[in-house]
Amino acid sequence: MKTQVTAAALMAALSSTADAGRRQADPADGAPALATYTDQLVYGELWDRDVLSRRDRSLVTVAALVANGRTSQLQFHFGRALDHGVTPVELSELVTHVAYYAGWPVGTEAAAELASVFRARKLSVDAADPELLALDPDKEAARKQSVARVAVLAPGLAQYTNEPLFSEVWRRPGLAPRDRSLVTVATLIATGQAEQMPFHLGRALDNGLTEPEASEVVAHLAFYCGWPRAFSAVGPLGEVLKARQQPATPEPPAELTVTPRAEAPHFSGPPANFTGEVEVESLFRADLDGDNGGGMVHFQPGARTAWHTHPRGQTLVVTAGVGWVQQEGKARHTIRVGDVVRIPPHVRHWHGASAEQAMSHIAIAESVDGSSVTWMELVPDAIYRAEQ
Fold first, then answer.
1. 142 and 57 in one domain?
2. Largest CA distance in the chain
3. Is 85 left (phi over 0), alpha (psi -120 to 50) or beta?
4. How many C-beta atoms surround the C-beta of residue 175 within 10 A?
């Protein structure tokens, strides 16, 4: 038979210890619509949806209330959880577990409320340390690797994460791994920690929570922590479920490629950008994130580029002859075979052959928004041949 919970009875149950001696008001007097929704929607519909058992709904609800410090409502829901089949040990473990994810203050306050319920029902839990559950070595190694990144900035946090949180708390047998995951996910939703959800949702599914159950947790908690936090959980939930439904297929291994020099485009340096006889071989445009590109440039004696800059800079590797390179306002440099020139971003400069010898170099630059160079005016002979 369905257990009916009226709004008036609920309000009486939710009162704090400090209010126990006061007359309980009928909530319908203050918010009649809320009282109606409580009776008909929350306890007349939500708690009876079959996607989650009442036991699971109690675990989720209690975790959310503990995490958000709703102590005045805990005694009622602790009792309701016991009535729904949650054991005293499971409730005790839940409070301890949530303290790690929502903070010690809310944990200790919830523990005091739970002790009051235990006294009223003449219940107790064994304080002895239990034998811990076994670890999955592969999953534990992957988890520790992710924590290792934290250790650089917060070694203490990494230490306590590994020991005792995952090496002890998660292995305590008083709350099954599936239920610990359920409680953790509920805590993260209740406290608005959406960025932490993908890891723990994945862990929950690995521990036996089904996809429909995970979705229903979000719907249930909308009533206990508000619609905004429930909606914030939908994004991470969708990402995790999509990843599970569409397993990634490994990409085929990349293959080495060779472009024969004869196939590389050749063209003469345009007179708007070069002085003298210049031949350009466009060697490659790499399919990389930075959109790198490069080419071989051959300068006959006296030939050079115009003044120009590069948004991400440029690297030159001299492969033949002798050349010159100059940054505006600085002394000219002579460059020879094997020399490597690094031009920083946005530095105005020119380069080319010396007056008496030809020069060839490989030029590599990275583009921004499709452009790797900004051309300016030609370099006059007075600057090119100036005594150094």
1. yes
2. 105
3. left
4. 24
Is residue 169 a contact partner of residue 97, using CB atoms and an 8 Å limit? yes
Cα distances from 20 to residues 32, 35, 74, 110, 120, in angstroms, run: 23, 21, 14, 18, 14
CATH number, domain of 308, equals: 2.60.120.10
3-class secondary structure, 350? strand
For 15-24, 53-62, 166-175, 336-345, which range has the lowest pLDDT when averaged over its residues?
A: 15-24
Convert the pLDDT of each residue in 348-359 to its tens digit: 999 999 999 999
DSSP label at 89? H
Provide the total of helices (H) and of strands (E) in the chain, helices listed first.
14, 12
Number of domains in the chain: 2
Query: Which residues touch 321 (CB under 8 Å, ≥6 apart)?
Result: 299, 336, 337, 353, 354, 357, 358, 359, 360
Q: Is residue 278 part of a domain?
A: yes
Say if residue 298 is in the same domain as residue 363.
yes
Do 232 and 275 lie in one domain? The reply is no
Q: Is residue 256 part of a domain?
A: no
Question: What is the C-alpha to C-alpha distance for residues 148 and 280, in angstroms, rounded to an integer?
Answer: 49
Q: Nearest 5°: phi and psi at 340?
A: -120, 125
Q: Is the peptide bond before 253 cis (omega within 30 degrees of 0)?
A: no
* Strand positions, DSSP E, the chain: 266-268, 274-275, 278-285, 292-299, 304-305, 308-309, 314-327, 333-336, 340-343, 349-353, 359-366, 374-375
Q: How far apart are CA 226 and CA 151, in angstroms?
A: 34
The answer for residues whose C-beta is within 8 angstroms of residue 110's C-beta and 6 or more apart is 65, 66, 71, 74, 95, 98, 99
Residue type, 354: S
Give the range of the structural domain holding residue 64, as residue numbers without chain letter: 7-245
Residues 211 and 89 in one domain: yes
Dihedral angle sign, alpha carbons of residues 218, 224, 226, 228: negative
Q: Does residue 279 sit in the same domain as residue 171?
A: no
Distance CA 168, CA 233 (A): 28
Residue-wise pLDDT tens digits, 203-239: 999 999 999 999 999 999 999 999 999 999 999 999 9
Note the pTM of the prediction, 2 decimals: 0.61
pLDDT for residue 15: 42
Please check whether residues 83 and 141 belong to one and the same domain: yes
Q: Give the helix, strand, coil percentages of the chain, each rounded to 5.
A: 50, 15, 35
